[in-house]
């Protein structure tokens, strides 16, 4: 089986709200895949259906070869889930917490090894309550990977992190990806998606409005560049030529020269503002 996840025609309605309006999706094994989209777009609904925690109205879904609408214990043990809310086994130490949860899995990883993998070895005997927010999040990830999952879901994993903690967390995820796990994350941080994801899907209004590699999403790689300098700016598909001409005009150094290509955020903001219905 090449794909870890296959989705065809997924829909979900809550009362009057059509939260998911027909999503098709393939996520390959070993891939890091990110869902992007504004608040209320349908990301959590989609992910919770894939995790087997929410019923769908219609559509065909396979997650690791199983329909998540009929989850089995064995299937659940192959999936790791890191939710938005931090765990609160606060009075236990990190090691006690990890050991406790290891008891729920048929073939758990070694607790010490998992604690080392998330960079908490020197905090193993500290109470979870005494850890910083970022460190607690690492405990969440430790619990998410404890069962040796083939597929890991991470919901907004770095919300509230300082920039350094975020970078460290990215390294942790990259390390997990290198071990061959499939990783599905939701995030509101475009730089995070760019740093981590092999592919992203932008969900807006219950549909996937764009899907692809961060570098090429929405025609990003072929979009025109904007050359700006102290006295003007021009949009062009041949910025090097423009700069050569400017350099001649100024007889050398061009004052205030900058070349701007669309960032993932520029593309994302355009994608989600386009009319959809
Ligand atoms: N349990 C529920 N009952 C009723 N409506 C819901 C429920 N859960 C979600 N919705 C609605 O479905 C739509 C999609 O919500 P969802 O949580 O999937 O969005 P999201 O993309 O995950 O948003 P966020 O970025 O804020 O987490 C929203 O309009 C939301 O109000």
UniProtKB/TrEMBL annotation:
User: Which SMART domains does this chain map to?
Assistant: AAA
What Gene Ontology terms describe what this protein does at the molecular function level? ATP binding
Is DNA-binding one of the keywords?
no
One Pfam family of this chain:
ABC_tran
Superkingdom of this entry's organism? Bacteria
Cross-referenced InterPro entries: AAA+_ATPase, ABC_transporter-like_ATP-bd, ABC_transporter-like_CS, ABC_transporter_ATP-binding, P-loop_NTPase
The protein depicted here goes by the name ABC transporter ATP-binding protein
Q: Which UniProt keywords apply?
A: Antibiotic resistance, ATP-binding, Nucleotide-binding, Transport
Entry-linked Gene3D superfamilies:
P-loop containing nucleotide triphosphate hydrolases
Q: How does it sit in the membrane?
A: Peripheral membrane protein
Annotated ABC transporter domain ranges read: 5-230
Keyword Nucleotide-binding tagged = yes
Q: What is the lineage of its organism?
A: Bacteria, Bacillati, Actinomycetota, Actinomycetes, Streptosporangiales
Q: Where in the cell is it found?
A: Cell membrane
> Primary place of residence?
membrane
Please give the organism.
Microtetraspora malaysiensis
